[in-house]
Specification:
This protein is an alpha/beta fold and about 150 residues long. The protein is built from 3 helices and 6 strands, in the order H-E-E-H-E-E-E-H-E.
């Protein structure tokens, strides 16, 4: 069997209906568009969501809330997540992405204070909470805010 010998099973496909090919074809003359009116014209028809002049649903429903287009989205990280790293190591954005702790494109990374750490780390990060900063410094590490 070759590719050029393949054909669909008998009765599974039929030729497309050719519109507007004479009165006796069954779809001649107006070609299923009816007579006159916007829908019968070439390029005619109504846009998506048009309800015949009635106030459309997207305008009838009330609008709610506010979407702040200048909002910054930060990836959140806790101190307990930093236990993957050895003591004395320097942690930056590339190290966090490499360890799988930060995924996707964000505006920065914020360190929060959940958990404990007993060894010093040098952390280069965009934002840090007050409690996280205290815990890192108490362990002998330091934080550099970018």
């Amino acid at each position: 069997m070759k590719l050029n010998e393949l054909s669909p099973p008998k009765g599974s496909s039929r030729p497309r209906k050719r519109l507007g090919r004479g009165v006796r074809s069954g779809t001649g003359k107006t070609a299923g568009r009816g007579t006159k009116g916007q829908g019968s014209r070439s390029g005619g028809g109504v846009r998506c969501g048009f309800e015949g002049g009635q106030m459309p649903i997207q305008r009838r429903l009330p609008k709610r809330g506010f979407a702040n287009f200048t909002r910054k989205q930060f990836a959140v990280l806790n101190i307990e997540d930093l236990k993957k790293f050895e003591g004395g190591s320097t942690i930056d954005e590339a190290a966090l992405v490499g360890a799988g702790l930060v995924k996707g494109k964000r505006d920065g990374i914020k360190l929060l204070g959940t958990g404990e750490i007993g060894y010093p780390l040098v952390i280069k990060i965009h934002k840090v909470s007050k409690s996280a900063k205290e815990k890192i410094e108490a362990a002998g590490g330091r934080i550099e805010v970018l």
